[in-house]
Design goal:
Elements (H helix, E strand, L loop, with lengths): L1 H22 L2 E4 L1 H7 L1 H41 L4 H55 L3 E4 L13 E2 L1 H8 L3
Parallel strand pairs: 1-2, 1-3
């Protein structure tokens, strides 16, 4: 009797295990590779690069202006004949210019981040929709993104769906 119960338990375990394996389909994708393959990413990156260069150019212009005024201030302090009122005025100009430069840099970083989000959010949404569509069409239960480095093992029977998603998006 004990043997029959053990055999029955093993049989039930094997059957439910086999059923579970049949219904569970796991895939993986490297979303970074997918996003890089999408032409929209290239044009968004170019726009961001242009914006970055404009910001850098403006910041460098302010820095050049600051350096020139600082050199002028140093010459006045070494002269020894310049009055305290003029020196104080030049110091205030330098402080104001330095604050302007810091404010610009902070606002530029914020604007750059907002622009980056605005440009890449629709691309990421399109990629996610394609992944979801491919998963539904091919019966996947779970898809893991291997680009984050969180997944340390991929089972030999898991399927990389990157080619399927690229095909869905019409990419090579």
């Amino acid at each position: 009797m004990k043997r029959t119960i053990v055999l029955l338990a093993v049989a039930v375990f094997m059957i439910t295990g086999a059923m579970g394996q049949a219904t569970l389909k796991i895939g993986h994708i490297n979303s970074k590779i997918l996003l890089q393959a999408m032409p929209e990413s290239d044009s968004a990156s170019k726009k961001l690069e242009k914006s970055y260069k404009e910001i850098q150019s403006t910041l460098e212009g302010i820095q050049v202006e600051f350096n020139k005024k600082y050199e002028d201030y140093l010459k006045l302090t070494q002269d020894g004949t310049t009055g305290q009122l003029i020196l104080k005025t030049k110091e205030e100009e330098l402080n104001t210019l330095q604050q302007r430069m810091q404010t610009f840099q902070t606002q530029a970083e914020e604007e750059y981040t907002n622009q980056q989000t605005a440009l890449f959010q629709p691309i990421q949404a399109k990629a996610l929709k394609a992944v979801s569509d491919v998963a539904l069409e091919n019966g996947f239960s779970y898809i893991f993104d291997t680009s984050g480095g969180v997944l340390v093992y991929t089972a030999p029977d898991s399927q990389d769906i990157l080619p399927l998603v690229k095909t869905k998006l019409g990419l090579k």
